[in-house]
Amino acid sequence: AQKVTQAQTEISVVEKEDVTLDCVYETRDTTYYLFWYKQPPSGELVFLIRRNSFDEQNEISGRYSWNFQKSTSSFNFTITASQVVDSAVYFCALSGGAQKLVFGQGTRLTINP
Amino acid sequence: DTEVTQTPKHLVMGMTNKKSLKCEQHMGHRAMYWYKQKAKKPPELMFVYSYEKLSINESVPSRFSPECPNSSLLNLHLHALQPEDSALYLCASSQEQGTFYEQYFGPGTRLTVT
């Protein structure tokens, strides 16, 4: 069975603070992919990043960075110098042999001005 | 252009009504998906179409009937729904069905069943 756990239900920070969203996953597949999606209040899920199980390189895209650690089954997401526009629900998701996305419960991030 | 469009944006229907949700993508994707999302919950997969054929049905009640008329269009026909079916219905597409491919989501249809 596959499972994704996002232990932080809600996070609230002040603008310009750095914030890290945690994601822990479980799978027996040797080949799998991990994803992060952003869901702003408008409702549309926006694809942010995909990482495969064989690539543990960290990735940085502007203010966003991702830390994949296979040893701890974690795929954490950090926003540096947060902005109000970053306020959204963020979902971590896993896709393995079943070819279906398994989502975590989501983390609601609020950036206060 | 990574856009998936959905109509209508909002829909209110009675339990005896018949209505349809529509989804369209022009990215040349061959896999399309319907998800249901309740408030403060993650999306739940309902159906997957691959090359216009139904590939996955997640044991969805028959009052939901999907249809894929062509590779760009996906419909969800609704009939005799229950109030608990009120939710955000999201459509998504990906290049192919498979572990590797990221899905692109539409803005959703917010459905209220009265």
What is shown here, in short?
In chain A, the strands form three sheets. In chain A, strands 2, 5, 6, 10, 11 and 12 form a six-stranded mixed β-sheet that branches. A four-stranded antiparallel β-sheet of chain A has the order 3-9-8-7, with no helix packed on it. Chain A has a two-stranded antiparallel ribbon with strand order 1-4. Chain A has no helices and twelve strands.
Describe this structure in words.
The complex is a heterodimer of chains A (113) and B (114). With 113 residues, chain A is mostly beta strands. Chain A is 0% helix and 53% strand. Chain A has no helices and 12 strands. In chain A, the strands form 3 sheets. In chain A, strands 2, 5, 6, 10, 11 and 12 form a 6-stranded mixed β-sheet that branches. A 4-stranded antiparallel β-sheet of chain A has the order 3-9-8-7, with no helix packed on it. In chain A, strands 1-4 form a two-stranded antiparallel sheet. In chain A, a hairpin with a 5-residue loop joins strand 10 and strand 11. The radius of gyration of chain A is 14 Å and the shape is globular. In chain B, strand 4 and strand 5 form a beta hairpin. The relative contact order of chain B is 0.34. Chain B starts with a strand and ends with a strand. The mean pLDDT of chain B is 95. In chain B, strands 2, 4, 5, 6, 9, 10 and 11 form a 7-stranded mixed β-sheet that branches. Chain B contains no helices and 11 strands. Helices cover 0% and strands 56% of the residues of chain B. With 114 residues, chain B is mostly beta strands. The interface between A and B is medium-sized, with 24 and 23 residues.
